[in-house]
């Protein structure tokens, strides 16, 4: 037998087991897994002695800005960053220019992104309420990985762009949807069988509270939290889970940040609602106490909250309430992230640093490596309908593999990020445990921190 690629002497780690084995790849698929050497030759060999072979990591929450403000990021650089961070598949968010709102814009986006993709990718579609309710079935049929609703945001009726800070009287801007209009989105997505994801913050509450805080003249991080409190997430998640239970829509709550939201999700799941949830490294490793050191780079929506919330999120991971870790990769330039906390944009890169931070947490004993593979490989693949093709190490599936060295240490440096945005809250952080090789359908994209392969990523769709 002749194989294209042999990964030998490594330790395979999946959610269910860990064992030493050799893994054989042929024509982009896993051909065999054996605890003893098989007869035959291989075109390429990787010696993974002392390292772990994981199912390729999946990042379900990436903003690549392409098309749109590509001076911040584009798909070429965002997928380089993903590969550098051990990610083999990303799901790109739909708030691009124009957004992915119908079958035609989906096909245009696939054509735009495929030549730039270093890893495989799925595309989120956007829900705009009455502006595209009728088109949600065709958006689903086109192949979107899920449908996202940016709860509480206004929309420009001409460009379909989101308006993050709506004020009455804005020209050509439709105000945020009513609760009834939002419920109609849940009903329509439920009919497709796709996943509906929400950004869970109550914009009306935030607008009122932020105006109150601004009148006081405060411009500190605690002022930001007073304007976007835990309550803003709690009430939206409560309504979203209730809408999910009533409509049958498969709800995915994005970037959970608070103890209250985690509790609401836990209750909904116990009642049988089809609800899943994710959180991100910045909510697990940062709190409001870090702002004096990290500074405005840390401004993210929803914002990083308090230590008690951080602890509650870890508990939610441990008890299975939160089943996915994502990055919410949202690049901006260093210049844009400098200035008044009220005026600078929210977000920072994260797809490259996510796995090193989580692997460091494995070394610290905060979770097991098997749990990590569930959170970052198997669970996202299952939730979004691409398992076992993605998210598994099974014979016949795509040879998407992340090789990690739990003993290797490095220092995260903003200047070394593969993203266009050289901005991170973790600049100077020392981590132990990093991805050393990223393999997509049998091809090594990253090795020892270097991108060594031209773009070859493909779009993926639920069920294929």
Automatic annotation (TrEMBL):
<dbReference type="GO" id="GO:0005737">
    <property type="term" value="C:cytoplasm"/>
</dbReference>
<comment type="pathway">
    <text>Nitrogen metabolism; (S)-allantoin degradation; allantoate from (S)-allantoin: step 1/1.</text>
</comment>
<dbReference type="GO" id="GO:0000256">
    <property type="term" value="P:allantoin catabolic process"/>
</dbReference>
<comment type="subunit">
    <text>Homotetramer.</text>
</comment>
<keyword id="KW-0862">Zinc</keyword>
<dbReference type="GO" id="GO:0008270">
    <property type="term" value="F:zinc ion binding"/>
</dbReference>
<dbReference type="GO" id="GO:0004038">
    <property type="term" value="F:allantoinase activity"/>
</dbReference>
<keyword id="KW-0479">Metal-binding</keyword>
<dbReference type="InterPro" id="IPR002195">
    <property type="entry name" value="Dihydroorotase_CS"/>
</dbReference>
<dbReference type="InterPro" id="IPR017593">
    <property type="entry name" value="Allantoinase"/>
</dbReference>
<keyword id="KW-0378">Hydrolase</keyword>
<dbReference type="InterPro" id="IPR006680">
    <property type="entry name" value="Amidohydro-rel"/>
</dbReference>
<dbReference type="InterPro" id="IPR032466">
    <property type="entry name" value="Metal_Hydrolase"/>
</dbReference>
<comment type="similarity">
    <text>Belongs to the metallo-dependent hydrolases superfamily. DHOase family. Class I DHOase subfamily.</text>
</comment>
<dbReference type="GO" id="GO:0006145">
    <property type="term" value="P:purine nucleobase catabolic process"/>
</dbReference>
<dbReference type="Pfam" id="PF01979">
    <property type="entry name" value="Amidohydro_1"/>
</dbReference>
<dbReference type="GO" id="GO:0050897">
    <property type="term" value="F:cobalt ion binding"/>
</dbReference>
<comment type="similarity">
    <text>Belongs to the metallo-dependent hydrolases superfamily. Hydantoinase/dihydropyrimidinase family.</text>
</comment>
<comment type="function">
    <text>Catalyzes the reversible cyclization of carbamoyl aspartate to dihydroorotate.</text>
</comment>
<dbReference type="InterPro" id="IPR011059">
    <property type="entry name" value="Metal-dep_hydrolase_composite"/>
</dbReference>
<dbReference type="InterPro" id="IPR050138">
    <property type="entry name" value="DHOase/Allantoinase_Hydrolase"/>
</dbReference>
<protein>
    <recommendedName>
        <fullName>allantoinase</fullName>
        <ecNumber>3.5.2.5</ecNumber>
    </recommendedName>
</protein>
<feature type="domain" description="Amidohydrolase-related">
    <location>
        <begin position="52"/>
        <end position="444"/>
    </location>
</feature>
